[in-house]
Amino acid sequence: MKPSLPEALQIDLRRINRDIENIIRYDKDVPRTSVLARSVLQLIRSGGKRLRPVLVIAGSRFGSAEPGRRSYQLAAAAEFIHAASLIHDDIIDRSELRRGAPSLHTQTGVTAAVHIGNYMSARVVELLSGYTSNHERFVHDLSALATAQLCLGEYEQLQHAYDYDLSLEQYLEKTRRKTAQLMAACLRVGALSADAKPETAAMLYRFGEALGMAFQIEDDILDYSATAEALGKPAGSDLARGQVTLPVLYALEDPDLGPCIRSIQPGSPAADIDAVLAAIRRGDALERSDLMRRQYLREALLAVEPLRSHPAYGQLEVLHRYFGGKTA
Amino acid sequence: MTELIEKALQLLAAACAPEAMAVIDPDPSELKEAAALLERHGIPHSRSVRLLALVALLALARKRHDGVSFTGEQLTRSILDGDYFQSLYVQLAVQYEEMELVRYFAPLLKQYYVRRALGEPCAEPLTQHLQGYLLLEHAVPRKERAM
């Protein structure tokens, strides 16, 4: 059987999971049997790939110190922040399911769920607020910079729904903010948490950013090429929700197809959407998108070329294969 | 005092990314109270502007997230704005080297959200926390505490 990502990287997932749960378990301000404690633990235990903590620990292996308490604390914090964002995302999307179970707001109500998400973010800030010195500033990148970038990516997505005049640069910027920068920040924060050199941390950041771009573009392609069963959501849902992704941008260049795509608006009939989906699949938009994805994968490897002789370089190869799909 | 509030709001308007199209509309009475507090404590003008901006961000985050519901017209916007203001608060505090304030406020803000999540009543003005922080800072100066 193919090993999971943590197994391939020899990362102790049990320790990470324990540290994530301890964030709430050791919070003396949260009654153990409260709906708050139960809801957060239920969400954390419902699964998830733990990609963010895995990236933090992989990054920490480029430090001069062994990954210790600080690295694992930051890894757990990264997942806690992610889980908080999922609660708010589900409310925004009015999703009734999360990882196959009823989403949190369907159980607690919207108001309580918003504040449970806020509690999780505030708890991370509390945990990390002990790091006040200048050389430890980087720990706040997760709860400040990366989170703000995620919000900005969401704002852009909101403002550009059904905007078929979106430029390639705008699409790339939104993708960078929504996906790539958090992956990059996790690797960088992990490296710095184990006292890696700043230049090493910067290389890992660039690697993570390029890998994140490739990962998101692959996700955008899959929305057109994969089955609903494989995706866990209806295929083509990006187009139906007005998300102008890379395949759409390329397909818009086709003079025959462009007007059909532009006709897709809120409330368009499913038959119209299906026809446009089929046309996009027939053209070269997916192939061109894949070329750009591969370009980012090459950039990722170039960014860490100077680290090739580092004992932890193999970790990057594993990440590259995992996030780059079968063609990496 | 009015000038202090105006400058803090200008600072926030400049700090917010244009893509956010954020509306900076904190409760004026809360800001006035905080501004008066900063003046009473003799905090230098430039620092007062920054501290007031940080308090305003927290107030804005609370305002956006309070009363979010599926029936509200601005559901998405309210949640995103609240999240953005919260993250910008930490980001600016790091930039202004006010991490001691973040450390003091962190458990208090968290406890507020715990009570809100549990549906318990809580009406803690942020100025009360600011007052506590300024008193602590007066008793033990910042550099001394950092050592």
How would you characterize this protein structure?
The complex is a heterodimer of chains A (328) and B (147). Chain A is mainly alpha-helical and 328 residues long. Chain A has a single domain, classed as Farnesyl Diphosphate Synthase. Chain A contains 17 helices and two strands. Chain A has a two-stranded antiparallel ribbon. In chain A, strand 1 (97-98) and strand 2 (101-102) form a beta hairpin. Chain A is globular and about 60 Å long. The mean pLDDT of chain A is 92. Chain B has 147 residues and is an all-alpha fold. In chain B, 73% of the residues lie in helices and 0% in strands. Chain B has helices at 2-15, 28-40, 45-65, 75-95, 99-117, 126-139, 142-146. In chain B, 41% of the residues are buried. The model of chain B has no long low-confidence stretch (mean pLDDT 91). Classes of the chains: A mainly alpha (328), B mainly alpha (147). Chain A binds chain B through residues 27, 29-31, 34-36, 85, 88, 91-92, 94, 108, 110-112, 114-116, 118-119, 121-123, 125-126, 129-134, 137, 140, 143-145, 147-148, 151-152, 154-156, 158-159, and chain B through 17, 19-21, 65, 67-70, 75-77, 79-80, 82-84, 86-88, 90-91, 94, 97, 99-100, 102-103, 106-107, 109-114, 116-119, 146.
